[in-house]
């Protein structure tokens, strides 16, 4: 099969690789209908993270089950499935509490990479969810989005306790931030402030439910949020970037007693205890428990209530993965879908 | 009147000071029935904090209203009241959400110090709560405890979402930690693990509702908590110290998806973003909104459901404040009540 491997910063190649196969009775092998490049893939692409090169890439996936191990009971070959980027048993106390991405037995759901034609998923029963049938092709981008960016934006909104009567601010206008806007809207938030300085992303944020746009950042951004909220700050703030600046902006834009949901993987973020203490905010985040939300997200997509696939503003064949990374790195695309 | 003033580390004096008087129409002046030394007073006593010396000390109080300003409507002279250490208007959106210690107009409730015979409380209507009548003398220590340490332990338990079915661990065996145990018990926690290595404090923790005692600290303490909770960690952990070690112990003792409530004023605490992210815990804390809990706490004390005054294991006349500080500094006493 063909698969994407990164050999170093900026060096993305599509290669012939061995087909994955069932290794454990709890595995499934999936033929991908679509996969994509994640904002977090850019950390290594830009040399900010240095994994052990070369690295098979990708952790977002949906497609048709090709084969399952003997212990798999909830999905069968021929079914279309969406899965989360962490494999989970979905039975331990952590999973049962809705934190499958913190499962006692969690592991990568895509050990061989999801930017490929085929992939092996461990702990298939606890990790992937079948759709009600074979999806119309136009639903595939949205189902793919559910695998990570929608699920992650959703977790940010849940962690920030977005809901009726709440004013929500979203820091970050990447795919996760934009889908955080969508999640806040679906969760019933009264007012949603998207922080963005790019007109195309502002437009998508409005389409997804943003009621206000704030273009300022840093101190000025915080002041704007305060101005818009009677001096108090937002009830709920979603941090969807992972930089120290974004985290500070999120915490400082939140009213005392309010909630910050953070899902950007932190890079060089240090939080000062005394600042946190007097900020009086609730802080919660981490890798999103996508598996927990998948049944509901699939339903919303299947019923065409939401269209999160809109974040894929560039679709390319898998063979053009290098161009996909470049387009995202240069911010020419919000998120690139790859057709295997 | 007589009042306690700290002139430098270890230098506590009781002096003749001007009687406080009504300065603003929202003020009240209270004749103290009891006051006490707080664990946080020891930070400056030990020279770890350096305020502008000399400093009038104390922020825990209960007593009889002597005089009120013209705008005060909820309490009147002759009533016995308990108040919180932050003055609050109790009307802004932050107060209405139960975060009076984050009030938009918050200020110190004891600008002249509460370790004195008399004190002025600003924003009296939003800060103090009258008891149903004049308390029996034996209730006074418990009412005094409600002013800070009980309210703070209560907030830690609420912030950590202690409740039915939950296993709660408490880091810190000072008065706040011990009353955090009491709060967890009152909130219905199933199992309460007190972390303490002092037999007198262990005994009080058990009296307040602890079901288990863990004497280990650091890595070993975390392992013990994991052992006691099926490898998962506690659902709810109360951090009642404020040191980096205590905060780490609290976060690492919490299961993924669980809650840390932190109320120890942080000293040199830095939280690493990536550790926080993968810990998957909820983190919430800050100065306790004691005013929010006072009506309920007063009721529990008045009905003799709880006896938080038990944390005062030494009672001294105000004139012996220096000895009170020394006893707490040397851990000869958990908490010292001062009789003005």
Describe the structure.
The structure is a homodimer of 340-residue chains. Chain A has 340 residues and is an alpha/beta fold. Chain A has two domains: 2-148 and 289-339, Quinone Oxidoreductase, Chain A, domain 1 (Alpha-Beta Complex); 152-285, NAD(P)-binding Rossmann-like Domain (Rossmann fold, 3-Layer(aba) Sandwich), CATH 3.40.50.720. Chain A has helices at residues 41-45, 93-96, 124-127, 140-146, 149-159, 175-186, 199-208, 218-228, 244-253, 273-279, 290-302, 321-329; strands at 2-8, 11-16, 28-36, 55-56, 61-68, 80-83, 86-87, 107-108, 118-121, 128-130, 167-171, 191-195, 212-214, 234-239, 254-262, 270-272, 282-285, 312-317, 335-339. In chain A, strand 14 (234-239), helix 9 (244-253) and strand 15 (254-262) form a beta-alpha-beta unit. Chain A is globular and about 60 Å long. The interface between A and B is large, with 41 and 41 residues. Strand 17 of chain A pairs antiparallel with strand 17 (282-285) of chain B, so a sheet runs across the interface.
């Amino acid at each position: 099969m063909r698969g994407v491997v990164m050999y170093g910063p900026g060096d993305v190649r599509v290669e012939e690789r061995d087909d994955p196969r069932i290794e454990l009775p709890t595995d499934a092998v999936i033929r991908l209908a679509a996969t994509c490049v994640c904002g977090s893939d850019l950390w290594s692409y830009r040399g900010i993270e240095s994994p052990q090169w070369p690295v098979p890439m990708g952790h977002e996936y949906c497609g048709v089950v090709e084969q399952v191990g003997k212990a798999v009971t909830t999905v069968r070959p021929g079914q279309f499935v969406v899965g989360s980027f962490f494999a989970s048993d979905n039975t331990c106390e952590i999973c049962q509490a809705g934190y499958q991405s913190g499962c006692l037995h969690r592991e990568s759901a895509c050990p061989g990479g999801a930017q490929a034609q085929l992939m092996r998923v461990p702990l298939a029963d606890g990790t992937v969810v079948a759709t009600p049938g074979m999806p119309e092709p136009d639903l595939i981008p949205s189902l793919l989005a559910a695998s990570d960016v929608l699920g992650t934006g959703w977790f940010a909104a849940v962690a920030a306790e977005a809901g009726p009567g709440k004013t929500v601010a979203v820091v970050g206008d990447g795919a996760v931030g934009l889908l955080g806007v969508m999640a806040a809207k679906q969760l019933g938030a009264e007012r949603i402030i998207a922080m963005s300085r790019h007109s195309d992303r502002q437009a998508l944020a409005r389409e997804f439910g943003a009621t206000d746009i704030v273009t300022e950042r840093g101190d000025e951004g915080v002041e704007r949020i305060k101005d818009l909220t009677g001096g108090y700050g937002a009830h709920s703030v979603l941090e969807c970037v992972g930089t120290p600046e974004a985290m500070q902006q999120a915490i400082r834009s939140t009213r005392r007693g309010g909630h910050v949901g953070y899902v950007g993987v932190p890079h060089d973020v240090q939080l000062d205890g005394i600042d946190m203490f007097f900020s009086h905010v609730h802080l919660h985040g981490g890798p999103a428990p996508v598996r927990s939300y998948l049944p509901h997200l699939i339903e919303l997509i299947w019923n065409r209530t939401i269209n999160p696939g809109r974040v894929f503003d560039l679709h390319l064949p898998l063979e053009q993965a290098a161009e996909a990374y470049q387009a995202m790195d240069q911010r020419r695309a919000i998120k690139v879908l790859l057709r295997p």
